């Protein structure tokens, strides 16, 4: 209190003297002065309390708070970390109504699922915990919801007036031997964005003597009429094998091949020769078609894979052919292993994708001999047989080596079962909806992968 009294005297230009010192001594023992001192000290503390409350609020307002961007159609969650402001309590956040987000003021978590891209100034309503009246103040923070990349792509229907038009999407589901088959072919986003047609195609056919065939083709994006090339390749090859004499010959040879303990190479060659003749017939037909239509063979460039399948007493036999980069894979019954049933024109066989329209593949001048494009496989049982174009292969497997890597396939099967970003599931027990479910599943997002997608599954 003495310093307090002396400070007042000093402020009033009263200097120390014998008289002044005696007066100060009396002031220090004065109850009235002590009361005044306590009152002023209390007022000083009150002022400082108010100052600190205002200071906390202003510091929080000035604090550079960055709320991470949200992504439209994706779940969002952000926890406000404001431990450096122990006296600040966020009461609510305004302007959330149109965003699809909510704020929990107990956990300080902002969460929800915004559906549209937007930018908004969020109003963070807060108060100081030391303020008995809990007077509200507002801090404004810029917040962004990024657009769903899918929404940036247009979906323009293709014109039915164009030459060799085909449906933008196609689906199929039916029995296949003693099993089921589902196929979906979806126009890629790059085509949809420009309003051009799908280049992929598929076909399947029930044949004589218990055989069935499924064919898948990926028309080259650089080819003017690839859409027609893939259609011809798949439908023609299926029709060619729909011949009783050809199929009977194949059945007899396959039975003989597996009758011996050690399968004979000459029988295998005979089987491949029968398949080869039909592939050559396809090539010849394509030549006739381009001549008649007055277009070039390159205009029809397309890959082609097919599988001829029959169930014998000794198991399933799968005869395969492939040109290009589309794989045929079978998953074993235990769902623990996978096998690639054809060679792909990628990797060590690369140098550019080969097409059924190329004469070089028939002269063994290609990446590998023509005979290596055929396969014969006996499997006692299997879980699923897959044929796919690179619209599926590229985003889901990336490189050829992963086509026989079980961990990649395990993830792929889980993906089809609904463990994906879109929660889209293909239910193999739902025979009515499965083809539409597969088509919907194929709408998955993969940055940089916007090609047509075709997937056939025998299950």
UniProtKB/TrEMBL annotation:
**Spans traversing the lipid bilayer:** none
One matching Pfam family is PP2C_2
- Domain named PPM-type phosphatase is located at 187-406
Q: Which domain of life is it from?
A: Bacteria
Provide the protein name: PPM-type phosphatase domain-containing protein
> Organism, per UniProt?
Capnocytophaga canis
């Amino acid at each position: 209190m003495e310093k307090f009294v002396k400070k007042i005297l000093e402020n009033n230009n009263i200097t120390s003297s014998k008289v002044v010192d005696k007066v100060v001594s009396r002031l220090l023992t004065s109850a009235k002065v002590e009361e005044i001192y306590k009152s002023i000290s209390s007022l000083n503390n009150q002022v400082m309390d108010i100052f600190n409350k205002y200071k906390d609020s202003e510091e929080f307002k000035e604090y550079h708070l960055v709320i991470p961007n949200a992504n439209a159609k994706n779940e969002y969650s952000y926890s406000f970390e404001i431990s450096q402001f122990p006296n600040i309590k966020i009461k609510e956040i305004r302007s959330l109504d149109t965003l699809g987000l909510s704020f929990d003021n107990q956990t300080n978590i902002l969460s929800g699922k915004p559906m549209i891209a937007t930018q908004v100034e969020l109003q963070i309503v807060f108060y100081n915990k030391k303020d008995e009246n809990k007077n509200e103040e507002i801090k404004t923070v810029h917040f962004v919801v990024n657009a769903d990349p899918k929404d940036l792509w247009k979906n323009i229907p293709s014109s039915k007036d164009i030459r060799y038009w085909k449906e933008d999407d196609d689906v199929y589901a039916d029995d296949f031997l003693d099993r089921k088959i589902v196929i979906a072919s979806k126009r890629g986003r790059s085509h949809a964005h420009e309003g051009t047609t799908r280049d992929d195609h598929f076909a399947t056919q029930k044949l004589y003597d218990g055989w069935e065939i499924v064919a898948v083709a990926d028309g080259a994006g650089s080819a003017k009429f690839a859409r027609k090339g893939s259609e011809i390749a798949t439908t023609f090859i299926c029709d060619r094998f729909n011949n009783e004499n050809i199929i009977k010959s194949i059945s007899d040879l396959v039975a003989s091949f597996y009758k011996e303990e050690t399968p004979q190479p000459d029988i295998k060659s005979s089987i491949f020769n029968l398949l080869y003749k039909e592939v050559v017939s396809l090539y010849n037909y394509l030549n006739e078609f381009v001549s008649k239509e007055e277009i070039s063979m390159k205009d029809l460039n397309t890959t082609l894979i097919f599988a001829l399948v029959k169930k014998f007493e000794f198991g399933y036999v799968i005869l395969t052919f492939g040109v290009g980069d589309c794989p045929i894979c079978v998953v074993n019954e235990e769902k623990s292993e996978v096998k690639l049933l054809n060679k792909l024109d990628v990797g060590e066989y690369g140098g550019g994708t080969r097409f059924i329209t190329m004469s070089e593949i028939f002269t063994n001048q290609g990446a590998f001999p023509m005979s290596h494009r055929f396969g014969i496989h006996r499997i006692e049982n299997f879980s699923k047989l897959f044929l796919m174009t690179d619209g599926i292969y590229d985003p889901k497997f990336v490189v050829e080596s992963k086509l026989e890597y079980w961990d990649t396939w395990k993830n792929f099967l889980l993906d089809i079962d609904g463990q994906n970003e879109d929660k889209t599931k293909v239910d193999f027990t739902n025979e009515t909806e499965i083809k539409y479910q597969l088509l919907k599943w194929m709408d998955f997002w993969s940055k940089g992968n916007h090609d047509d997608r075709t997937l056939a599954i025998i299950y």
